[in-house]
Each structure stands twice: as structure tokens, then as C-alpha cells.
Design goal:
Blueprint lengths: L1 E4 L1 H10 L1 H11 L4 E4 L1 H11 L2 H9 L4 H11 E3 L16 H10 L3 E3 L3 H4 L3 E2 L2 E4 L1 H8 L4
Parallel strand pairs: 1-2, 1-4, 2-3, 4-6
Antiparallel strand pairs: 5-6
Helix pairs in contact: 1-2, 1-3, 3-5
Length: 140
């Protein structure tokens, strides 16, 4: 199963573990394929580079470069075409939808309310981590 993971889920997984980190376990075990694009990875790198996260990265022994390297090892990267949906409350979310379309994924996993409000886009479900795990991996 191919999924797109939004930036906020990557950050939660790497820095706080918990439920979002289970997605990484499934990717490492080849139970899911996490799909990304260069714009998503650039947003993630920018987020990890923010001063407010540097203390957390340091406390875990991570650097932005090490987290980006680890992320690139977990994902398949797809080229995306520009997408501009006026119905999105946050235009930055266009890259998440464009990545899901390019990768032909079944699901977008996010904590972003601006995306979750859509519930689906072009038959691609938009769900929280908990929903995804409960509905696709309830036996895991």
C-alpha cells in the first residue's frame, strides 16, 4: 500500500515517536510504501531547521541532515506537477495532494486540519495516523 505522509507526521515520528512512529516500522518492514516529493522533503528540512526544534533534535542526538538522510531512506520520491486548488485553506497543502496524485496513493496520513477537512481527494482518503492504523493495520 502506498501512502503520503504529511510533514507534521514525519516531525512527530522522528522527534516524539509514539503512534506516528509505527508508520516508519511498517515502511521498514515493507508493509507500506511512504511516498514523498522533493517539495515535501524541502518543507520537512525547513521545519527541522527551525530554531524551536533544534533543542529537541540535539537532545535526541539528531541533526537536520541525519533526519533528512533517514527520511530519504524510508521514502520513494516522485516528481510532481503543480497543483493549485483554490478550495484549500492552506496553499502549501497543494504539494501533499500533488504527491499523492503523482504516486497514485490510496491514503494521505496527516494531522493537518486543513487537509483532514477534505476527507478525500480524487478517491484518495485523507486520515489521521490513528484512523489509518485502526482501519488498515488493526491486527498489527
Amino acid at each position: 500500500m502506498k501512502i503520503v505522509v504529511d510533514t507534521n507526521i514525519f516531525v512527530s515520528s522522528w522527534l516524539w515517536g509514539g503512534i506516528p512512529a509505527r508508520l516508519f516500522k511498517f515502511a521498514r518492514n515493507h508493509q507500506i510504501i511512504i511516498c514523498a516529493s522533493e517539495p515535501i522533503l524541502a518543507e520537512l528540512e525547513n521545519t527541522f531547521s527551525k530554531p524551536k526544534l533544534q533543542r529537541k533534535l540535539n537532545s535526541l542526538g539528531f541533526t537536520t541532515d541525519s533526519l533528512m538522510s533517514g527520511t530519504r531512506e524510508l521514502v520513494e520520491i516522485y516528481s510532481i506537477s503543480p497543483l493549485d486548488l483554490s478550495e484549500l485553506r492552506d496553499p502549501k497543502d497543494n504539494i501533499v495532494l500533488a504527491t499523492a496524485i503523482a504516486a497514485q496513493t490510496e491514503v494521505i496520513v496527516t494531522g493537518d486540519l486543513d487537509l483532514l477537512i477534505l476527507q478525500e481527494y480524487q478517491a484518495i482518503a485523507i486520515v489521521t495516523v490513528r484512523y489509518f492504523l485502526d482501519h488498515y493495520f488493526s491486527e498489527s
